[in-house]
Known about the structure:
The protein is an alpha/beta fold and 200 residues long. It is 36% helix and 20% strand. The longest helix is centred in the last third of the chain and has 30 residues, at 170-199. It is globular and about 50 Å long.
Amino acid sequence: MTPLTATTALAVFASGSGTNLQRFIEETRAGGIIPARLALVVSDRPDCYALERARVADIPTFAFDPKVYPDKAACEREVLAALRAHDVTCIALAGYMRIIGPTLLEPYRGRIVNVHPSLLPRFAGKDAIGQALRAGASETGVTVHLVDEGIDTGPILAQQRVAIQPSDDAETLAARIHAVEHQLYPTVVAELVRRGERAR
Length: 200
């Protein structure tokens, strides 16, 4: 993987409320743990709250409606142009609900990171929390991994376990998982940045 450095320009892709994005906003500010510049927030949902978080933080945004493009490649070419216009060198997916296609994956291979609410390879794909509850699992967790052509199949960078309590429902379990995500995800990115700094 190409190491990140202090000059890294980071883009965050989000589709929802943007709680993980908020952590990246906080941790890329002066005094935060990530020595990188949050250069762009990308979303496939122009009305999502993540974009409002970005606007409040004065971070450039690129929002698009996938339905207006003739195909996935055409859509990703516009996203790629926006990334290049902001000199983005690394991408963090934070609740982004679209699969990254080859138009984006190839230029950023090894530099796209995702967080998933399970201990991969268990409960990959959609509704990982619901999958764990329906399976009667005693634990699940959080995985940070590199993105490849598959769905949650890229090399694992870090994992942390979360116990499932007998009283848990989807809401209570999600709250504990998200709390772990908000600590683990920026910490992993920060370590990648520091490794890049040490290698310089």
